[in-house]
Design brief:
CATH class: Mainly Alpha
Order of helices and strands: HHEHHEEH
Number of domains: 1
Helix content: 40-55%
CATH superfamily: Winged helix-like DNA-binding domain superfamily/Winged helix DNA-binding domain
CATH architecture: Orthogonal Bundle
Largest sheet: 3 strands, antiparallel
Number of strands: 3
Number of helices: 5
Length: 106
């Protein structure tokens, strides 16, 4: 993941509703959620959710597939892992981090 992709992902997640939607999809696992299920769980109007999903799609964080009349949404775990890897690439200046605390070990 390069700097521009990272910035796009961070901008997409820098909104309470988009972050909540993405987290719900991550928690749903590889099966994802139908758009209606996600909308109900977040309590967002359809047009508002559509706008948020378009931003998440544009950042490459969410994929969707049509299953008959249902659109199923899934988090893009590879992109999420890439974002985390980019952010932690030089964590602790190469030293091993303590797993529970995230603090660097000498």
């Amino acid at each position: 993941m390069d700097t521009q992709q990272t910035l796009a992902a961070l901008r997409a997640l820098a909104h309470e509703s988009r972050l909540a939607a993405f987290r719900a999809l991550v928690q749903a696992g590889p099966d994802g959620l139908a758009v209606g299920e996600l909308r109900e769980s977040l309590g967002l109007p359809p047009a508002t959710l559509t706008a948020h999903l378009n931003v998440l799609r544009g950042a490459g964080l969410v994929d969707d597939t049509r299953e008959g009349r249902v659109i199923r949404l899934r988090a893009d775990y590879e992109r999420m892992d890439g974002l985390i890897a980019f952010l932690t690439e030089n964590c602790c200046q190469g030293a091993r981090c303590a797993p529970a605390t995230g603090r660097c070990r000498p």
